[in-house]
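S.,

Sequence below, as promised.
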Amino acid sequence: MKITGLLVLTALMLLGIPGWGFAQAAQEFTDPAGKYKFTLLGDWRAVSYNDAVGRAKLEFVYGDRAEGLLKITREKLNGLNLAGKAREEEENLRMYRAGFERATNEHFDAGPLDGIRFAFYSADGGRKAASAFYYLQDGEYVWVLRFTGRRGVLDTIRNITDRMARSFTPLEK
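The prediction came back faster than expected:
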């Protein structure tokens, strides 16, 4: 009788732990400058540092920089539509990235923001790299979430990068 009760208690605890760990894996992040917020999932974490000139920089790292890196920028569309902006960047990457190989360019449902997801492979310092860029239109501006990482790592966490991009919310106009 005691052993059965102990087995049931152990089973209930094991069933509860994965849900608890998953709930702990999501963390709301708000940009210190108040420009945006989004949800960090899994092993993604914010890293702040000063560049060589002393400017404060903010990046997001998955494990270490080689495994996954996210940089967020806000750019003016300058008369282009969202597809034109993505196409312009693809043309530049074709010329300047060694081993450039396009994977996808697709509409991305980003909630209130119109979005495009552009993914490609390239060589980075002799290693195979994967990249997924999310273009999220915010009026005459576009927020670009540039995920880069080791090929095979970034590919396997697409569901996480998609969810992080969908959670992205601009805070200023």
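The first helix runs from residue 2 to 25.

Coffee later?
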